[in-house]
Amino acid sequence: MLERTRSKKRTEITFVLPAGHPAGEVSVVGDFNDWRPGAHPLVERPDGSRAVTVTFPVDQHHGFRYLADGGHWLDEDGADGHDGRNCLLHT
């Protein structure tokens, strides 16, 4: 799930995964962090879900995916689109 907070100059996107899915550490990777695993790790919330917030300038497009332990890639169903390989995000 993606949670968005917009202002005139920036958009905060909170990337959220449900509790326990998948097990182990997960990070969001994309062109905004040079696809570096661990650059934006998801942190557990009080309700058990995991999330990380990333701030972007407005009106940009980015590709991203989730990377879990063991090199498992996950897609975001709530993404703004898919290009056949990556999830797409419009800020």
Description of the molecule:
By secondary structure, the protein is an all-beta fold. It has strands spanning 2-6, 10-17, 26-30, 43-44, 50-57, 61-68, 72-74, 81-82, 87-90. The strands form two sheets. Strands 3, 6, 7, 8 and 9 form a five-stranded antiparallel sheet that branches. A four-stranded antiparallel sheet has the order 1-2-5-4, with no helix packed on it. It is globular. This is Isoamylase early set domain-containing protein. InterPro entries: Ig-like_fold (IPR013783), Ig_E-set (IPR014756).
Produce a short descriptive summary.
The protein is built from no helices and nine strands. It is an all-beta fold and 91 residues long.
Mean pLDDT: 95
First and last CA, distance: 15 Å
What are the secondary-structure elements, in order, as H or E? EEEEEEEEE
Class from secondary-structure proportions: mainly beta
Number of helices: 0
The percentage helix is under 10%
The radius of gyration over CA amounts to 12 Å
Question: What share of the residues does DSSP label as strand, in percent?
Answer: over 45%
- Low-confidence parts, pLDDT < 50 over ≥5 residues? none
Silhouette: globular
The profile of the biggest β sheet is: 5 strands, antiparallel
Number of strands: 9
